[in-house]
Amino acid sequence: MPHINAAAALQISVLLFALPAQYFISQWYRTDPAERIQVTERLIIASWSISTRSYLSPDAWADRLKLWVSKTRTCLYVELLILHFRNWYYGENKTKSGDNEAKLHSYFAESTHVHSPKPEYIKFRVGQVIIHRRFGYSGVIVGWDVKANTPEEQLQPRYSPVEQDLKDTPHYRILINKANGFGKSTAYVPEEEVTVIMGLEVVYHPDMETYFSGYDGSKYIMQPWLKKLYPHD
């Protein structure tokens, strides 16, 4: 049995379609046989031309493929954005107990739970500019914990035996001013090691715009997402 490719199958389909079309023409237009043959030929030629442009043209299939890929990428990108936003906003990646990755993200004042109510003994606020009393660098507060919240294996060697009480005092996450030339970009420090300074608006750090939208003369203004986490600061 001979092999029929796609083009041959399409030609046969067009010819089969021409038979009922010829009957339709003969019934409605009452033409003579010679005219019906001419009309049928034109119908076949027109159908074949449209089919080749729509289905047998490499350019037509290339255009369809490009459109499909574009739509697929767009839908996938939007879905990923929505998923990422939901995970970030609702803290879904921190709700499962025993999840080591979630625990890591909640350390060093990076937890996404709402810090409310705010204890009265927390002196400083997110957005305030500070200076470190020992190391002299300046920076801006981007988060706080009521006490040190670090992995246990890091907590013990962090403080000398005489400083162990500092573990139970408020701790702040700091974006360090890059203009200071300090080696680190962030710090996590106890309250007694920093003091607030006023009037220093310029803190250079690549993540500043992620956390803040401006400066009001006394502190940096939190972005809406950060304000949700620290509503009383």
Automatic annotation (TrEMBL):
Coiled coil: none
Domain Hemimethylated DNA-binding: residue ranges: 121-223
Species name: Pomatorhinus ruficollis
Pfam families to which the protein is assigned, alphabetical: YccV-like
NCBIfam families: yccV
GO MF terms, alphabetically ordered: DNA binding
The protein's name in its UniProt record: FBX21 protein
Matches recorded under Gene3D superfamilies: Hemimethylated DNA-binding domain (2.30.30.390)
Lineage, highest ranks first: Eukaryota, Metazoa, Chordata, Craniata, Vertebrata
Taxonomic superkingdom: Eukaryota
